[in-house]
Amino acid sequence: MVPRVAIIGGGIAGLTLAKALDAHNLSAVVLEARRRHDLQGGAALAMAPNAMWVFRRLGLADRIVAAGSRIDRYLFIRADGRPLKTVDLSRISGKWKESSWAVPRSHILQTVAEAVPKDWIRWNHSINALHRTASGYTLYQESGPAISARVVVGADGAHSTVRQALWDLPDAQYQGFIALRGLVVFCLPKTHQHTVVQVWGGAGEFGYSPVGEELVYWYATMRWPRPPADPPAMDDIIRHFQRWTPPISNLIEATDPSELLIHPIFDRLQPFGVRPAVTLIGDAAHLMTPNTGQGACQAIVDAYVLARELYEHPEDAERALQIYRRIRLGSALAVGWRSRRLGQLIHWQRRGVGTLQTLVLRAVPTSLVTQAMRQVVGQPERLS
User: Fold this and answer.
1) Which of 58, 179, 249, 320 is least crowded, fewest Cβ atoms below 10 Å from its Cβ?
2) What is the Cα–Cα distance from 34 to 155, expressed in whole angstroms?
């Protein structure tokens, strides 16, 4: 009997899982608390070779990159504009044999959603309780009938209802900084095409890259003593970065304040235990900081591996979930720990000492930076 999978959450993790299950002729339902309209926005995402490898196998790669820009190198510079290091991203692809891309988040979500059978996705459907049954789970909605499923997958993000209901684990830990993101119409110099420029300036960072022909995606982080109840105003952000190298101020000022995204950054790197007929993927499983750019990519790989294991063990969902957890959880948590340490380095500051992160980056050979990035992306043989 083919397992019917209830996917709680219709973000990148949940939609990719639904598409991967459909590719294996398995059935599923996706329950997303938000409306479909809420897929719009979200600035852009870095799609590293591991994520693109999955999308290639799902037949979506060409559609995903149609609205994006290929990223061939990382250019690290200081806040005053002086260069620190250049990393050739072709050296991190390895056996994935895929390039890195910057793509609008809304385009990725829309592309994957359109590839999932229409009757699988139920927008504006919130789950408020789960009960174990002899054959799986019964899920109770805030409105609408209960839903039965043999397998439940929590793909519902940082504040996962599934995780909170079935695992007694610590809350996510605030990492002491906030992230800012914007997507603007802007013309970069030709020298910065196919390039992520990463600016490190002491207790923070600012990065930007082209996205498609006319857009530029920018992101930044700032130290913040506690999760902000009242986020910083645009004037505060401009003031913080006003002495940093151009075009940083121009990119911030070109951003519509109503479209500026500001989020306090948390992570949660505790492994979840085995539960019958249920598992977690993406941020629900391994919430990480954005510093390695791997949060969405790891979720996409999670979805691919989980769908494959459910296909390969159609009569033994428990075994499929155990194999998925063994393959993915430790690897994703290791990336999360690397991301946390990098975030701590970027935001470390002590009066009279200077910017430790720029000193470290200057001292470390480019080959070691490349090796570290390759280790974060991993290799496809680790998926078996």
Assistant:
1) 249
2) 13
pLDDT tens-digit readout, 40-96: 778 999 999 999 999 999 999 999 999 999 999 999 999 999 999 999 999 999 999
Full strand arrangement of the beta sheet holding 215-223? 83-88, 73-78, 195-200, 204-211, 215-223, 173-185, 261-267
Distance, in Å, from the CA atom of 295 to the CA atom of 336, rounded to the nearest integer, reads 8
| pLDDT the model gives residue 348 | 80
Q: How far apart are CA 350 and CA 122, in angstroms?
A: 50
d(CA 99, CA 104): 16
Mind listing the pLDDT tens digit for each residue in 163-175? 999 998 888 999 9
**Domains within the chain, CATH numbers bracketed:** 4-172+267-383 (3.50.50.60)
Question: What would the DSSP string read from start to end of 4-52?
Answer: EEEEE--SHHHHHHHHHHHHTT-EEEEE-SS-GGGGS---EEEE-HHHH
Residue 1: predicted pLDDT: 40
Helix (H) or strand (E) holding 86: strand 83-88
Give strand ranges (E) for 240-361: 261-267, 278-280
